[in-house]
Design goal:
Layout: E1 20-24, E2 29-32, H1 33-36, E3 39-45, E4 47-53, E5 59-66, E6 70-71, H2 74-77, E7 87-91, E8 95-101, H3 102-111, H4 113-139, H5 142-157, E9 169-170, H6 174-181, H7 185-197, E10 201-204, E11 207-210, H8 213-222, H9 224-231
Antiparallel strand pairs: 1-8, 2-7, 3-6, 3-8, 4-5, 4-7, 9-11, 10-11
Helix pairs in contact: 5-6, 5-7, 5-8, 6-7, 8-9
Protein name: CRP-like cAMP-binding protein
GO molecular function, one term: DNA binding
GO biological process, one term: regulation of DNA-templated transcription
Length: 234
């Protein structure tokens, strides 16, 4: 499970050279379905999450993005009616973007066709990430999904430039894990408890400590039954 977008180094600044720099604090809305129809954002720093929500308040994570990714570009290649009404992008950390209008963005893409091709490549990777999440949701049990998500966060914390919360400590709640995996909070709590019993993670107030990244990765890839046999404490 790879909830963090990956993208090849691509300098998109020529598309946004007329844009306005905007800074968002942690937990702030960058855009939703309605505002995406007006603006496109180039993220220059920070981490954000894109999710889809329902009128009943349920939420499902689609992916996490960081510096170098673009928010709102889909409307340059599609129609507003193709966007879900519950789509929104929220900051996880402090985020800075360069914002331009959809009209300016379309004009810039016409001037720099090679960058437009790069944007299509980024869009493909978004689709690939969502397909992988669907595969995990359909064929992996809750413990395997939780392990894969926690390992992805651990790997992201080690990435150069990522905001670190502490050595092997992840600032993530059970509810956030449930949102990301599409499972209930109760089943997530049970899965995290199994990982703790196996000596793979340790629970702290508001934090999850990764004790054995290799075992966590194995559980996420192979399922809990196989990996727990080799990682459980005696």
């Amino acid at each position: 499970m790879k909830p963090f977008l990956t993208h090849a180094p691509l300098d998109l600044s020529p598309l946004f050279h007329t844009g306005r720099h905007v800074t968002y604090s942690a937990g702030q809305l960058i855009c939703d379905t309605h505002s995406c129809a007006d603006y496109v954002h180039l993220v220059t720093s920070g981490v954000y999450r894109v999710s889809i929500g329902t009128s009943q308040g349920a939420e499902r994570l689609l992916y996490y993005g960081y510096s170098g990714s673009v928010i709102g570009d889909a409307l340059c290649f599609g129609e507003p009616t193709t966007l879900s009404l519950g789509l929104r992008a929220l900051t996880v950390s402090s985020v800075t973007t360069v914002r331009i209008s959809q009209t300016q963005f379309r004009s810039a893409c016409a001037v720099y066709p090679e960058l437009s091709v790069g944007l299509l490549g980024m869009a493909y990777r978004k689709i690939a990430s969502l397909i992988e999440q669907i595969e995990f949701a359909a064929f992996r049990n809750t413990t395997s999904q939780v392990a894969a998500l926690l390992h992805a966060f651990w790997a992201e914390e080690a990435r150069v430039g990522a905001p670190l919360s502490g050595k092997n400590l992840l600032a993530i709640t059970h509810q956030e894990i449930a949102s990301a995996t599409g499972r209930t909070r109760v089943s997530v709590t049970h899965a995290v408890g199994k990982l703790q019993d196996a000596g793979v993670v340790a629970l702290h107030r508001g934090r999850i400590e990764i004790l054995d990244p290799a075992a966590l990765h194995a559980i996420g890839e192979c399922g809990d039954t196989l990996a727990f046999g080799s990682s459980r404490k005696s």
